[in-house]
Specification:
Length: about 375
């Protein structure tokens, strides 16, 4: 693919520009309560590096990732394993490698994309056949689940439950886009309902047996997640107060009336909503919708592996968007999921820019295909 013939998707670029402005403005405002210094400068640096990465990816092609998917998948899992032995414990979790004078590196952020690429390739292989028997579909589902379970297990041990959920969201969207019978989803949801029903029954009505079966650590982890149900915790209370009192135009730029932990990462939406109110929220959510619908359009028009990959990446981003915004409003549990392209974070932002490069390549392929068909 020649760079001179490359056509950048204007809607993706426009959305990314709005995300950049909102991210920098919100992180600047959050810096007053953040424990780390120079967050704005670092976020700017990550955006610059991410932009250079996007340009590099568009000079290549998605086939580069498809040809090396096994190396990416294995390498990602090796990094997750090494974290358990050599990663420093930060707030009780081993999620990051710390690089002196540079910052931290979170392998799970990239493992999400490596997993999506791997599952997309497996889905494409499976769907190259026009018809499938129940046995073939069953083993395909087992393969998808098996490939998802390995990084999920390693990530769960860190522990990082939020990312584990994202892995399974990716797997679900891959299966949903594949040509398998819808009855498998009914069976799968029934099994999950039975499993989670049993877990929650033991948690609420037989705590001793729950701890014997699943350990004390899992009990307290589940207890922390379910705190949102009671509406307790000053983090959520202050978030709701800040958002609820912001009105139409907000409290004003760089004006946070209340403190809550992780303002530049997990609760970045609360910071933005507090600063810019209802109007600002409408702008952000509208931009997210434009971005998501564009990804959906690209996925529906793509062929081969691109179709499954972009669809799974859309599912991943959609889940994170809904989860992050909802948890700041008390609608869903607080799980530590960040808001894509807005929250501070080097590993997360670089991984999202990697997604941008992949999506732009897919969009360009769609446009080139349309031109050839005319």
């Amino acid at each position: 693919m020649k760079f001179s013939k490359y056509k950048y998707d204007k809607w993706i670029i426009f959305s990314l520009l709005i995300f950049f402005i909102i991210s920098i403005a919100s992180i600047y405002s959050a810096s007053v309560y953040a424990s780390e210094e120079n967050l704005v400068f670092k976020q700017l640096l990550w955006y610059v590096i991410g932009t250079l990465l996007v340009i590099a990816i568009t000079r290549l092609d998605n086939d580069y990732f498809y040809e090396n998917y096994k190396l990416l998948y294995i390498g990602g899992n090796v990094l997750l394993l090494l974290l358990l032995f050599f990663g420093p414990s930060i707030n009780g979790s081993k999620c990051w490698f710390v690089i002196p004078k540079i910052g931290s590196f979170q392998p799970s952020e990239f493992m999400k994309i490596f997993l999506a690429i791997t599952l997309a390739i497996e889905a494409n292989k499976f769907n190259q056949q026009e018809e499938h028997t129940l046995k073939q579909e069953f083993f395909f589902i087992l393969k998808i689940i098996g490939l998802t379970l390995l990084p999920s297990f390693l990530t769960f041990l860190q522990p990082d439950t939020g990312v584990v959920i994202i892995y399974f969201v990716i797997a679900f969207f891959i299966l949903f886009a594949s040509k398998i019978r819808k009855s498998w989803f009914i069976i799968g949801f029934s099994i999950l309902a039975l499993l989670f029903g049993t877990i929650f029954y033991l948690y609420f009505y037989n705590k001793d047996l729950f701890i014997q079966l699943f350990s004390t650590e899992l009990f307290y982890r589940l207890e922390r997640i379910l705190d949102w149900k009671q509406g307790v915790g000053y983090q959520l209370e202050n978030s709701l107060t800040s958002i609820g009192s912001s009105g139409i135009f907000g409290h004003g730029f760089n004006n946070l009336p209340l403190y809550f932990p992780e303002p530049a990462t997990d609760f970045i939406f609360s910071v933005f909503a507090s600063n810019f109110g209802f109007i600002g929220c409408i702008l952000l959510i509208s931009t997210i919708l434009v971005f998501d619908f564009r990804l959906l359009s690209i996925a529906s028009q793509s062929h081969s592996i691109d179709r499954y990959l972009v669809f799974s990446l859309l599912g991943m981003l959609l889940y994170q968007q809904v989860q992050n915004i909802s948890m700041t409003l008390g609608l869903l549990p607080i799980t530590g999921i960040t808001l894509p392209f807005i929250s501070y974070g080097g590993s997360s932002l670089i991984s999202y820019m990697l997604i941008i490069g992949i999506v732009l390549n897919s969009s360009n392929t769609v446009e080139q295909t349309k031109k050839r068909s005319l």
